[in-house]
Write a structure and sequence with these properties.
With 107 residues, the chain is of the alpha/beta class. It has one domain (5-106): Phosphoribosyl-aminoimidazole Synthetase, Chain A, domain 2. Helix content is 36%, strand content 15%. It contains four helices and four strands; from the N terminus they run βααβααββ. Strands 2-4-1-3 form a four-stranded mixed beta sheet, with no helix packed on it. The radius of gyration is 15 Å and the shape is globular.
Length: 107
């Protein structure tokens, strides 16, 4: 990764549509998702996540959410503003752990 900052992402904080989880569990996975997973495998430590969970994180169909990076000390005020303006699903999903190798660790 360009910044060489390491990141922890909290899997249980990531929002998934229930239907998507059910489809993935049934083995209904878009073909491009496998390519995405292969592409990021060197940069992401999936820890003990199941293959299905890894594929959910690599879904080729998602447009993704808006990801914002900021100082941890600013996050609570930012989230409060988002929640007050109708974005109730906004949450902290991870943190930068400092300079390192540019790896993402899913916890």
């Amino acid at each position: 990764m360009g910044s060489a900052c390491d990141v922890h992402v909290y899997f249980d904080k990531l929002p998934f549509l229930r239907e998507v989880i059910n489809l993935a569990a049934a083995g209904i996975i878009p073909g491009g998702t496998y390519n995405n997973l292969d592409f990021v495998r060197q940069d992401v430590d999936f820890g003990t996540l199941t293959r299905t969970d890894q594929l959910l994180l690599s879904d080729a169909q998602t447009s993704g959410g808006l990801l914002v990076a900021m100082k941890a000390s600013d996050a609570n005020n930012y989230l409060a503003d988002l929640h007050n303006n109708g974005f109730s699903a906004a949450s902290v999903i991870g943190e930068f752990t400092g300079k390192g190798t540019g790896k993402i660790k899913i916890l």
